[in-house]
Structure prediction request, 294 residues.
Amino acid sequence: MASSKPTEIGSSKMFEGFNKRYKHQSPTLGCSMNFHIYFPPSTSPDQRFPVLYWLSGLTCNDENFIIKSGAQRVASTEGIALIVPDTSPRGLNVEGEADSYDFGVGAGFYLNATVEKWKNWQMYDYIVKELPQLLSDNFPQLDTSRASISGHSMGGHGALTIYLKNLDKYKSVSAFAPIVNPINCPWGQKAFTNYLGDDKTAWEEYDATCLIKKFNDVAATIMIDQGDDDKFFHENQLLPNKFDEACRNVKAPLLLRMQPGYDHSYYFIASFIDDHIRHHAQALNPSRVGNSRI
Prediction:
């Protein structure tokens, strides 16, 4: 069953391009979903833009990144379209779906749930399969064959795991304060137990530190920024050192930048998002990139 044609529900001009918000009926998730696209300014009628998917963190929806990150400034000059989906199904009224901030609504963890109660939580398939097809079918100005992926916190977890399991689909990956070893942190253990059950081998399929051991033929350096004043870093929710060690063991290229004094917020993201956009521009538009190296 194909996704319904998206309906535009909002538009605002920014840096000569446009933020546009859409809604559509998702057969993968069984509910109506919203997403944003930032279209950079076009220089010719037949111009097609590569895409950068942004996956947001716990409690976020499709609006947070668009409003707070400032990513559009460099996306405009680099000619990259930003694709920002929501973080979970909404409006299904499953018992307990909104009882806590770190599970259920706003907390899809970008996996395919196997526990029956949460059968609609199929965010992995939504991001990897349904959304790219929807974009390809409805937006001829987007070149979905040139795609990269990024995200923050839970979304950084999603970006890394999706990238590593689909190295043929994405040119590059980056993340801000990602949950890189969820099988060993409280957030991941709670979510995985409820979505996937007690089989720990199933959990490893959504853990970047486990996946890098199997899928390490990466085309571009993995880029991660982590604030050293991030309370979740100090609470051992993020565990970047575990991922760093795993990458070293398989000689996977990782640029892990510890940023002194920064926390887990969008102030942190806005401070370094330009570097991330340019990192992806190198992979998506190599012929355009001149002095944009980090």
In short: Strands lie at 7-14, 17-26, 31-39, 49-55, 81-85, 142-152, 173-176, 222-227, 254-259. The first helix runs from residue 64 to 68.
